[in-house]
Specification:
Strand content: 5-15%
Number of strands: 7
Helix content: 40-55%
Structural class: alpha/beta
Radius of gyration: 17 Å
Shape: globular
Distance between the termini: 43 Å
Number of helices: 8
Largest sheet: 7 strands, parallel
Order of helices and strands: EHEHEHEHEHEHHHE
Strand order of the largest sheet: 3-2-1-4-5-6-7
Length: 256
């Protein structure tokens, strides 16, 4: 047989920022592929709703209200997951946010908030979960980056810096941790329909500009991020590490 398994049966996954948008879609998609899923988010009601949908699929869900910029909260929650499940196989670092400020208007508070939410959280979760994966000599870490980490956009310099750093962090962690059987990859989305982009995509002029710069001529649907995530999490990606897959309708073919 040459076709590797894309199934995640008996795997335990953790998704950060899992209460809505991309994180919610990825958590449910991983469950559809067979994984039991731990959910991190700051809003308990959001992750309880996602947990309910996962359990309706016949999979187990473990919701945790966690500030992923706080090492102690992450360590406590990860320890509880491992105590309940015995292991943690897959980590999806999805938590993130953006403040669309021109560079001259960026405040210290904005810088710190975006850096901590987007980049520090991904490193802390990777480090804490990575220690467990090292002991088990197996792991899949998937970072949700952005096309903004590859090409220059007009606003969001701090956001872009975090996503570029995340892409480079993916490479370095893949290099360091490959010997432990840990694969580290990232996914770079373009515009997708989420609660965070709903307002900006409602502007017809802005939407027309986005579509004009996208060879496939549309914004993405959330389920179109699930396949790449399941791929990186599965045996199909056993020999893939340190890579960034841009799921962007072709936008990064030429950039802006």
């Amino acid at each position: 047989m040459y076709l590797p398994s894309f199934q995640l049966i008996n795997k335990i996954a953790l998704v950060t920022g899992a209460g809505r948008g991309i994180g919610k879609a990825l958590a449910i998609g991983l469950a559809e592929a067979g994984a039991d899923v731990a959910l991190f988010a700051r809003t308990a009601s959001d992750i309880e709703e996602v947990a309910h949908e996962i359990r309706a699929l016949g999979r187990k869900a473990y919701p945790f209200t966690v500030d992923v910029t706080n090492r102690e909260q992450i360590e406590e929650a990860v320890q509880q997951i491992i105590e309940q499940t015995g292991r943690l196989d897959i980590l999806v670092n999805n938590a993130g946010m953006n403040i669309r400020s021109q560079a001259l208007a960026v405040t210290d508070e904005e810088w710190d908030t975006i850096m901590q939410t987007n980049l520090k959280s991904a490193f802390l979760c990777s480090q804490i979960v990575g220690r467990h994966m090292q002991q088990k000599e197996y792991g899949r870490i998937i970072n949700i980056a952005s096309v903004a980490g590859q090409v220059a956009l007009r606003t969001g310099v701090v956001y872009a810096a975090t996503k570029a750093a995340m892409i480079q962090m993916t490479k370095v962690l893949a290099l360091e941790w490959g010997k432990y059987g840990i694969n580290v990859n990232s996914i770079g989305p373009w515009y997708f329909k989420t609660p965070l982009t709903e307002k900006i995509l409602a502007n017809p002029d802005y939407l027309a500009e986005i579509i004009a710069r996208t060879p496939l001529g549309r914004v993405g649907e959330l389920e179109e991020l699930v396949g790449p995530t399941v791929f990186f999490a599965s045996d199909a990606a056993n020999y893939v590490t340190g890579q960034t897959l841009f799921v962007d309708g072709g936008m990064t073919i030429y950039g802006f």
